[in-house]
Write a structure and sequence with these properties.
Blueprint: E1 3-4, E2 25-31, E3 34-40, E4 44-50, E5 55-61, H1 65-71, E6 87-90, H2 95-106, H3 113-131, E7 136-141
Antiparallel strand pairs: 1-2, 2-3, 4-5, 4-7, 6-7
Helix pairs in contact: 2-3
């Protein structure tokens, strides 16, 4: 059973050499008497919302396909501005460019079938957000 490093006092100091330890949740697990650190990304929720933040559509990345894509390396462009552990908002002028980047990601051959299907859903959501007109935002809410 994993021991979560947040929410409970610890008597052991744990250090990690992860590239970005400040944004990673670490889980200390027992591994036949030897502790091991597992870095776990959290799910991203993608919403289309009005300027007053009324949610119109929602897509949950429960399997963390987008989070894994973002943690593999900075994809550049607007996708590079999505923080899997924070919030990012795109306005009506940015959403079409983001849609193009998502479509470009779909053409990459190394995509797993589940990842490809999810990125298609995100691209479709971005297109629908763009079609709604002004005063609409596309939110990526991490962690």
């Amino acid at each position: 059973m994993p021991l979560r490093l947040w929410g409970a006092p610890l008597t052991t100091t744990v250090t990690t050499t992860a590239p970005q330890p400040a944004i990673c949740h670490a889980i200390l697990e027992a591994n036949i008497g030897k502790p091991r650190i597992t870095l776990a990304a959290m799910s991203i929720v993608i919403t289309v919302a009005t300027e007053r933040n009324a949610e119109l559509e929602r897509l949950d990345d429960a399997d963390d396909h987008l989070g894994r894509l973002l943690l593999q390396g900075n994809p550049g462009g607007l996708l590079g501005g999505i923080d899997p552990f924070g919030d990012a908002m795109f306005n009506r002028l940015q959403i079409p460019a983001l849609h193009k980047e998502l479509v470009a990601q779909l053409s990459r051959p190394e995509r797993a079938p589940g990842e490809h299907a999810f990125l298609e859903q995100v691209a479709d959501l971005a297109q629908r957000a763009s079609d709604r007109g002004p005063h609409i935002h596309l939110w990526f809410r991490g962690d």
